[in-house]
């Protein structure tokens, strides 16, 4: 039901709580006007007492005039807008029906009206009311579905219009700014860059402290046993994660305070990590609690806020106290986790995120793995709200989201191998859900946490060594990507701009880069953020 209709209902005069009669009057060309007539002591008021509620105007179609076979973008938008106007008219008709039924109920229950009706007539009226109410209720749901469909159609058409605008702009800029010679130098190419390009070139700059003001997943809970340690690098600093005597995780600097020995080479016992060099022991808050062969000194390592949540170990790498809540990374209802894989990759985490947020490369890059047999579409689009970091791919049945600060979540509808096109997420019964966490270890290294879930075949996870098969497949896919991304990284370090000419299907990757730029600038409100 539309906002205008809802507002009309909420603005009904208080006098309607008194005995009233709802009526209609014809206005304009086929339109109706809903009016309320106050009744005093069962008597109908004069026409001058009529109180206008709202008008139900019949929408007038405006079919766009076009000479060719296909509608233009603006013409198609007009058609979508007319659909919404029609839905609004239908919704107002539904409200009219419901209000008339409400009047009938009031009339049946009105003690003054009962005096003039026989019992048989009242029974008949009461028997008819449930059926009429059920019909009206069903019609309201149909109208809501029509409105939802029309809104989705309008959003789709607006996305197409936006994509066409970008393509036209880039085409014009290409014709205007393209170098006159194929032997143009890199400096010439840089001077001719389109205004809409992003400048992501040169060696990766030192991470801005604002990038640390987020919770980062660093390990899977299942990998952190009571007697194990997990060494990690985060923003070019070494840390080690282990469980305390209470079972809660802690994260301390992976460097002994005594002689700078890596602590992860030691052992964990009774919730304390022991240095393998001289046996110094530390608790999860970094405090040294034991110094064999010498007097205990007041020594403490740096530690980070560390929590366990939804199967992950999280850290807050900033020197500032935590100011944000932990994001949810749980798979959707009905999905079971089948694989949890950790990899250390020799690329900067932003480059890896760029790759994961791009599906248009799949039929060219992943020809021996998951995209084997995929045809190359004539047009690939990523459709997303105007302000959002999520959307869906067309023509592929894949939903995708960038979740700050470093996560990519995707849901893939599985129909037949090599036959993904033409199916939507909702049309497929089986799905694969993926989570990629790209932890920035250093400016040329990423710690990748990959979790894969399915909403079918629950027994697969109980097959021995199945996790090794999943890991093998994940490695094969990443090998296809890494040879390209490592090449990008080399050229970027030498001055090439890896985002020189974005096109419409780069939308999600571009938004990630704009979000990251805003974080590093210390922007008060981040773009595409729900908290904006």
UniProtKB/TrEMBL annotation:
PANTHER family: CHLOROPHYLLIDE A OXYGENASE, CHLOROPLASTIC (PTHR21266:SF19), IRON-SULFUR DOMAIN CONTAINING PROTEIN (PTHR21266)
Name of the protein described by the UniProt record: Chlorophyllide a oxygenase, chloroplastic-like isoform X1
Underlying gene: LOC104587818
UniProt keyword list: 2Fe-2S, Chloroplast, Iron, Iron-sulfur, Metal-binding, Plastid, Transit peptide
An example Gene Ontology molecular-function term: oxidoreductase activity
Pfam families: PaO, Rieske
Biased composition (Low complexity): 175-185
Cellular compartments annotated: Plastid, Chloroplast
Domain Rieske residues, every copy: 215-315
InterPro entries: Cholesterol_7-desaturase, PaO, Rieske_2Fe-2S, Rieske_2Fe-2S_sf
TM segment ranges: none
Domain of life: Eukaryota
GO cellular component, one term: cytoplasm
Chief place of localization: plastid
Chain spans, region Disordered: 170-197
């Amino acid at each position: 039901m539309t906002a205008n209709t809802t507002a009309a209902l909420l603005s009904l005069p208080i006098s309607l709580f008194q005995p009233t009669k709802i009526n209609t009057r014809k206005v304009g060309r086929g339109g109706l006007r809903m009016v309320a007539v106050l009744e005093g002591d069962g008597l109908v008021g004069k026409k001058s007492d009529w109180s206008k509620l709202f008008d139900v105007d019949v929408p007038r179609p405006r079919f766009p005039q076009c000479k060719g076979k296909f509608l233009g973008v603006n013409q198609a938008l007009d058609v979508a807008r007319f659909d919404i106007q029609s839905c609004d008219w239908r919704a107002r008709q539904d409200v009219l029906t419901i209000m008339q039924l409400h009047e009938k109920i009031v009339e049946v229950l009105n003690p003054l009206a009962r005096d003039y009706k026989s019992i048989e007539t009242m029974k008949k009226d009461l028997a008819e009311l449930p059926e009429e109410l059920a019909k009206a209720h069903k019609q309201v749901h149909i109208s809501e579905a029509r409105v939802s469909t029309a809104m989705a159609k309008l959003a789709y058409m607006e996305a197409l219009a936006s994509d066409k605008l970008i393509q036209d702009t880039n085409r014009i800029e290409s014709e205007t700014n393209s170098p006159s010679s194929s032997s143009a130098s890199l400096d010439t190419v840089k001077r001719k860059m389109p205004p809409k390009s992003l400048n992501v070139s040169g060696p990766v700059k030192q991470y801005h402290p604002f990038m640390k003001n987020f919770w980062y997943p660093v390990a899977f809970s299942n990998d952190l046993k009571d007697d194990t340690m997990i060494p990690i690098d985060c923003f070019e600093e070494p840390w080690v994660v282990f469980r305390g005597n209470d079972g809660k995780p802690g994260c301390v600097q992976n460097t002994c305070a005594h002689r700078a020995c890596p602590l992860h080479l030691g052992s964990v016992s009774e919730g304390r990590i022991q240095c393998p060099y001289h046996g110094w022991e530390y608790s999860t808050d970094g405090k040294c609690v034991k110094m064999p062969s010498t007097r205990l000194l007041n020594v403490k390592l740096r530690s980070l806020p560390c929590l366990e949540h939804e199967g992950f170990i999280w850290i807050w790498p900033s020197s500032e106290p935590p100011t944000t809540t932990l994001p949810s990374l749980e798979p959707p209802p009905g999905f079971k986790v089948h694989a949890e894989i950790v990899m250390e990759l020799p690329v900067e985490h932003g480059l890896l995120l760029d790759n994961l947020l791009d599906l248009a490369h799949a039929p060219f890059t992943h020809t021996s793995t998951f995209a084997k047999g995929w045809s190359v579409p004539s047009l690939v689009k990523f459709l997303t709200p105007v302000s959002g970091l999520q959307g869906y791919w067309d023509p592929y049945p894949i939903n995708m989201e960038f979740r700050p600060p470093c996560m990519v979540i995707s849901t893939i509808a599985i129909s037949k191998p090599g036959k993904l096109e033409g199916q939507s997420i909702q049309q497929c019964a089986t799905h694969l859900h993926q989570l990629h966490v790209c932890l920035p270890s250093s400016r040329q290294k990423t710690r990748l946490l990959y979790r894969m879930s399915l909403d079918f075949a629950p027994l697969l996870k109980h097959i021995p060594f199945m996790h090794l098969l999943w890991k093998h497949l994940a490695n094969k896919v990443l090998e296809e990507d890494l040879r390209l991304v490592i090449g990008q990284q080399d050229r970027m370090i030498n001055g090439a701009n890896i985002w020189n000419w974005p096109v419409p299907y780069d939308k999600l990757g571009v938004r990630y880069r704009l979000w990251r730029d805003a974080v590093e600038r210390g922007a008060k409100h981040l773009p595409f953020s729900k908290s904006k």
